[in-house]
């Protein structure tokens, strides 16, 4: 809240509305006085930063109340325009005018102007802030300023933040432990987290964990965020000293399953009741530990009990975390999908969150896979295709699994599996039915390959991996202007790297996946082999161009060929490209214009593309 500000806040609008109502009540809506007041207020709100739109002086013969209003409007216009010296001077003049109805508020606004100005200055601001602090404390002692005392206290918090940030940080850390409610809690939390981020960004994790903590809350947060053996030792020591629930949560969250003290923590965890706010977190980590220790049956029984007792009362995030754990000890594929298809607790795209009240209904329908990376890397095509046929999946997951399985089968040249999935693909994507019927009718592998490519060219959203964006992707037939179309080979696209590996930063550095217990070693080996084959394939535009060129040479009279050539060229504009794509784009372009110059598809293809 201290690094930026809303120039004209809601309070300013409310003050203007209330003032207008009072002036209308006194003078009448059509009076000269009200018109003059509106003229001045319009100028105030028209002011831009460093471009003040100052109201003209009030007419000499107008009512004195409107003259006082005009003085306040001029001061406010300077404030909103950022000409703070003039604003401060004008507010001080108003504060000294005992006849002005704005005198009391002006005393506060003098200090607010000083504080606002210091937020934009790099030097010499501490002295001015000290003046502001002294004036604010003086206002808090005045009985005639009672209505503005809370505003003064809020401004004092801002001043304290800038003059004594560490002290203010400790004050808010202690105040949050007093279980504040309502606006007081919101204010303290906002200030605390702002200061926390400032201090933690300035110091290494080693410094934070080694230095004495000034309050329990900061100690607890830093310990959990830092992690590692040192953080666990500190948390465990604090728990043994205090026997507090908070440090039990920290300890069981950080403990490694094979550490000797884990049984002590599991014993203490068993005594935490379902009514405790810590219960979901502790129950999750008990399950995590049991799974890591290889106690599959015990973990399954524990998680089933927790979900049965709390499933209807848990938050989305807590429920999803427990369901994800439960999916790891699934007995079979069907049970795995029972627990791994979840509703997201929030959806983020870029810097904006879709987790707003008006979007809750949309979010609630967006069933997602809890671990799409596992499905992309660890499960063989045979099981992925089988999963698409499981009853009770839901429309979105079934569509995603069917598309992914079919495209992957095509790329792996497993046309038997692709044929088995064709009818299902036509059901989940009705617009594709005409294409998959033609695919099913082809007898030879070359014919099936071209028919599959002809279908893929019409659906840029068809990809051989599950996309975490899920429901928030654009329509399957629509070209994505940012080239998120079809697929890329691993070496050319960081997005594909992230989707195919377990790297969260797009670096492509893979980490070990946690494999559900029902999956056999043979199945994971098959999945690994298939993944290697896929990674050796060319990217989508190259694949389309090569296939279209091959088929057109053997079947030049196929009525699909001109359109396929046109769409193949288009894919080199909107798909993932490499150093050979331009040459292929040119070859397809030349063939289209040489063999089918009068076709509408040739007329619709004026360019080829090279990058």
Summarize the topology.
Blueprint: H1 10-27, H2 32-46, H3 64-81, H4 84-95, H5 103-118, H6 125-140, H7 149-163, H8 165-176, H9 182-202, H10 205-210, H11 216-226, H12 228-242, H13 245-254, H14 262-269, H15 279-292, H16 296-310, H17 316-328, H18 333-340, E1 341-342, E2 348-349, E3 352-353, H19 360-365, E4 368-369, H20 372-377, H21 381-387, H22 395-411, H23 415-428, H24 433-441, H25 445-458, H26 494-500, H27 521-535, H28 540-554, H29 561-574, H30 581-595, H31 600-603
Antiparallel strand pairs: 1-4, 2-3
Helix pairs in contact: 1-2, 2-3, 3-4, 4-5, 5-6, 6-7, 7-8, 8-9, 11-12, 12-13, 13-15, 15-16, 15-17, 16-17, 17-18, 21-22, 22-23, 23-24, 24-25, 25-28, 25-29, 28-29, 28-30, 29-30
Give a verbal description of the structure.
By secondary structure, this protein is mostly helical. It has four domains: 10-163; 209-365, Serine Threonine Protein Phosphatase 5, Tetratricopeptide repeat (Alpha Horseshoe); 368-535, no CATH class; 540-603, no CATH class. The chain has helices at 10-27, 32-46, 64-81, 84-95, 103-118, 125-140, 149-163, 165-176, 182-202, 205-210, 216-226, 228-242, 245-254, 262-269, 279-292, 296-310, 316-328, 333-340, 360-365, 372-377, 381-387, 395-411, 415-428, 433-441, 445-458, 494-500, 521-535, 540-554, 561-574, 581-595, 600-603; strands at residues 341-342, 348-349, 352-353, 368-369. A hairpin with a 2-residue loop joins strand 2 and strand 3. Helix 25 (445-458) crosses helix 28. It is flat and about 95 Å long.
């Amino acid at each position: 809240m201290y690094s930026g500000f809303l120039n004209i806040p809601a309070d300013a609008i409310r003050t203007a509305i209330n003032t207008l109502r009072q002036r209308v009540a006194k003078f009448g809506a059509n009076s000269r006085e009200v018109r003059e007041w509106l003229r001045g207020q319009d100028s105030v709100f028209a002011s831009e930063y460093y471009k003040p739109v100052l109201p003209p002086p009030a007419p000499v013969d107008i009512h004195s109340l409107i003259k006082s209003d005009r003085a306040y409007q001029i001061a406010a216009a300077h404030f909103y325009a950022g000409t703070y010296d003039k604003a401060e001077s004008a507010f001080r003049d108003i504060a000294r005018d005992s006849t002005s109805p704005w005198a009391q508020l002006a005393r506060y606004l003098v200090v607010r102007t000083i504080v606002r100005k210091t937020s934009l200055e790099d030097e010499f601001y501490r002295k001015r802030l000290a003046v502001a602090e002294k004036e604010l404390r003086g206002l808090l002692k005045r009985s005639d300023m009672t209505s503005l005392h809370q505003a003064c206290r809020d401004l004092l918090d801002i001043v304290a933040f800038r003059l004594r940030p560490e002290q203010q940080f400790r004050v808010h850390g202690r105040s949050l432990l007093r279980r504040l409610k309502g606006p007081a809690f919101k204010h303290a939390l906002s200030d605390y987290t702002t200061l926390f981020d400032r201090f933690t960004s300035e110091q290494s994790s080693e410094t934070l964990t080694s230095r004495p903590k000034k309050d329990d809350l900061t100690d607890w947060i830093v310990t959990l965020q830092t992690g590692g053996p040192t953080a666990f030792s500190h948390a465990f020591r604090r728990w043994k000293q205090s026997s507090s629930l908070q440090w039990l949560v920290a300890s069981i969250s950080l403990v490694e399953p094979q550490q000797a003290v884990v049984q002590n923590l599991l014993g203490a965890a068993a005594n935490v009741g379902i009514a405790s706010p810590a219960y979901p977190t502790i129950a999750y980590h008990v399950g995590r530990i049991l799974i890591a220790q290889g106690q599959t049956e015990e973990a399954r029984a524990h998680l089933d009990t927790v979900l049965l007792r709390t499933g209807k009362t848990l938050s989305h995030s807590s429920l999803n975390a427990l369901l994800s754990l439960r999916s790891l000890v699934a007995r079979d594929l069907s049970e795995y999908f029972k627990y791994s298809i979840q509703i997201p607790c929030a959806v983020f795209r870029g810097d904006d969150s879709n987790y707003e009240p008006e979007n809750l209904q949309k979010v609630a329908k967006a069933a997602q896979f809890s671990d799409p990376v596992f499905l992309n890397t660890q499960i063989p095509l045979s099981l992925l295709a089988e999963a698409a046929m499981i009853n009770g999946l839901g429309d979105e997951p079934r569509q995603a699994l069917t598309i992914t399985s079919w495209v992957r089968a095509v790329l792996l040249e497993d046309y038997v599996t692709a044929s088995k999935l064709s009818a299902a693909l036509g059901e989940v994507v009705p617009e594709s039915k005409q294409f998959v019927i033609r695919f099913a009718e082809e007898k030879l592998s070359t014919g099936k390959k071209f028919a599959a490519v002809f279908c893929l060219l019409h659906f840029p959203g068809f990809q051989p991996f599950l996309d975490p964006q899920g429901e928030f992707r654009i329509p399957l037939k629509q070209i994505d202007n940012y080239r998120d179309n079809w697929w890329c080979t691993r070496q050319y696209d960081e997005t594909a790297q992230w989707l195919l590996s377990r790297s969260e930063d797009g670096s492509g550095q893979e980490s070990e996946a946690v494999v559900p217990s029902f999956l056999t070693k043979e199945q994971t080996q098959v999945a690994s082999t298939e993944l290697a084959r896929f990674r050796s394939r060319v990217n989508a535009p190259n694949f389309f161009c090569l296939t279209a060129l091959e088929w057109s040479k053997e079947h030049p009279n196929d009525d699909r060929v001109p359109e396929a050539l046109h769409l193949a060229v288009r894919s080199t504009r909107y798909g993932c490209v490499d150093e050979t794509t331009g040459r292929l784009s040119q070859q397809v372009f030349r063939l289209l214009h040489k063999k089918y110059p009068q076709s509408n598809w040739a007329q619709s293809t004026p360019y080829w593309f090279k990058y």
